[in-house]
Amino acid sequence: MLQVSESQVRLGLSAPDKTEAIRIAGRAMVDNGLIDPGYIDSMLGREAVSGTYLGSGIAIPHGLPEARDLVRRTGVVVVQFPQGVDWGGGEPARLVVGIAAKSDEHIAVLQRLTGVLGDPAEAARLGNTSDPRAIMAVLNGEAPTAPASEPVAAPIDGNSIAVTAPSPHGLHARPATALVEVAKRFRAEIAVRHGGTTANAKSLISLLRLGASGGQPLTVTAAGEDAAAALQAIRAAFEAGLDEPVSTAAPAEEPAPRAVPADLDYDGRVIAGISASPGVSTGPVWKFQREELTVAETAPDPAAQHRRLDQALAAAAADLRNLHEEFWKKAGAAKAAIFKAHQELLDDPEMVAEAHALIDRGKSAGWAWRAVYEERAGTLAQLADPLLAGRAADLSDVGRRVLRLLAAVTETMAALPDHPVILLAEDLEPSDTAKLDPAKVLGLCTAGGGATSHTAIIARSLDIPAVVAAGPSVLDLENGRAAILDGDGGVLVADPSDRDRGRAAQARIKVGERREAERLDRYKPAITTDGRRVEVAANISDPAEAVQAVEAGGEGVGLMRTEFLFLQRDLPPDEEEQFAAYQTMVRAMNGLPIILRTLDIGGDKSVPYLRMPAEGNPFLGVRGIRLCFEREDLFRTQLRAMLRASVEGPVRIMYPMIAAPAELERAKAITEAVRQELNVPPVELGIMIEVPSAVMMADRLAREVSFFSIGTNDLTQYVLAMDRLHPVLAPQADGLHPAVLRMVERTVDAARRAGIWVGACGGVAGDPAGAVLLSGLGVAELSVAIPAVPSVKARLRAIAMADAERTARDALDCVDAGEVRALVRQRFADAGGVS
Fold first, then answer.
1. Which end of the chain, N or C, is less packed with Cβ atoms under 10 Å?
2. 786: domain CATH number?
3. What is the tens place of the pLDDT at every residue in 73-111?
4. Residue 119 CA to its chain's centroid (Å)
5. Signal sequence: where (predicted)?
6. Is residue 250 part of a domain?
7. What domain range is 121 assigned to?
8. Which positions are annotated as active-site residues?
9. How many domains in the chain?
């Protein structure tokens, strides 16, 4: 049953008008993880269509039906305005109940609320109380909501009709209001019966108290001279949906819960998600909630407010720089780059200028800044392109960082307890995750996100077990409830049995022993039990990681992302700067091969000096090799630096986003011209296979290069038309989908016929099941994140290639990624943790 927690009750606030009161309620709903910011505009839109004031000082603002996709989970917040807010009817609202409804779970809360409406004294008490528990007690059914003598609508004798409560959400405020409007057109007495309760059809409060859910049967009875006409009109109103808009498009389906793998035999309640970081932990759960930041709307001295905003922006920028440096030391440059990107968001000139313009119109610095960043974050969240929509969380994170320095009041909503906990959240912003203390956080479980989200990346780097995309039900768990987080199996187990706890303890010991064995054997080659070798290399993003790759047991670098040299700066790197970086990495490899990928930047990254226009879908625009052709000057400079560094050791050059033979021909021609200018020996050239057209043309492309490298992350999203970071589609954007594996098979077959080798450098290569299947399909080199190198090598040493090949063939005939993973678990249950 839906319950209201203390974090969902805000007391003693004030608002100049109804609009700001709704915004305050909406922000409380955002903070509690109930809605996306864009839903607030829909709440205001609803108010323009029909008022939400119920009476007795209570209003229930909520959004329009078409905005339900912005509701993250069903729930309510209660905001108290003791001085009252004019809601347009002459009577002030003192309790504003913001409603977020994906289902009809909130109806029970509203039923209890309508009891307050029948008792003005109780409504007045709650509108002025200083104890949030008083409101919680009423809405959670822990206290009587109306005096015992309250009259109940009595059944009436007359003609009746049978109708059905409108779907999907029943007789809630909007359809009940429509029914009241119809009933009041007639003089007849009209009653609505649901189960054993009868309501007056001309009373909104009475109808709401029925608590009729969608599809439930109702009986409408009318008595009086126009009773027949009244029933006829009411039947027509129900058939029309009682003002519930009918969409011509098919309704969006809620994502189905992920299936729990059959071999995860837990007694407790199992909530399945996606494995984002390995490990097993046991402890109490705790819901993560951010602090509430309160600012005044207006300020008397604009000049002082301008200075306050500039100072806050500068301080936040300094904080981000420090955070970047600290996290760089803990997790490396690639992971810390998240905070570099946040510095760019903070330095958006249009956003800063708009905030200053609001200050000129009399707004306070805090109010102006919050209005600007929330509006932009809300707009981003609603964009069709999932990558851009995913940046809304980053912008909110940056915005709140500045707002903390401007807020007049900061109230901590729910600090972490002193004892270690498994943290639950809708999703975590990068800076939230980066500040987590592994000693206090046993694990992370998020309702949203994906296995390659910022949360997952940072959790892995901090060695915190994590499960993502577990769905909204995970947030229904109460703080302190016992649980097991199985990062290897991708599940959270609530209320574990003693047997479950014992298994988890054994799993932790087993994981620790396995990791130590992998560390000791990290320099051994990955040779399968039947004598077949697979090279395991590392993906790196800066010179320091080259040394780490070798120390982790990497047999080379299968992907060097050169973008780090081009981002977070005002001018592009010159040839000497690039040469120094590449030379350092080549020397660090000490004779091991390194693949340098040419610049792979597109419209999804902010690089001011490139003057790239914003694109509606940057993944389908000018990026990768296309950008290199647009800026051939940068391409030639980079090639000169790479080719000069090749004199120091075995360097291979790889072109990203090749979609057609003509692009490869042009890239090779430019490279050869630069090589001849430098008069250096030729190097091996290869291409990324990451778009379907490259797979379909692989036989032609293979004749022109020395190797292929499959970028499984991009190939997956292009093949399945799903962004792996999408908040809804992330669980389905799995690189082990048979459609993706068939693309790999076709690529390897074309390469084999041309006599070249194939590597894989995407996330699937480091996945336990992915390493087995890619090897079985004939991929000769797996390039993975540095921490995964020892475990991938150990995994391959524990299996026979013949078994991997047979399993890979069978996987091609599976129906989805879930079936593929189950197949691998079944075949390799004892092979070094393959799952």
1. N
2. 3.20.20.60
3. 888 899 999 999 988 756 788 989 888 876 555 555 665
4. 43
5. none
6. no
7. 6-140
8. 62, 172, 454, 761
9. 5
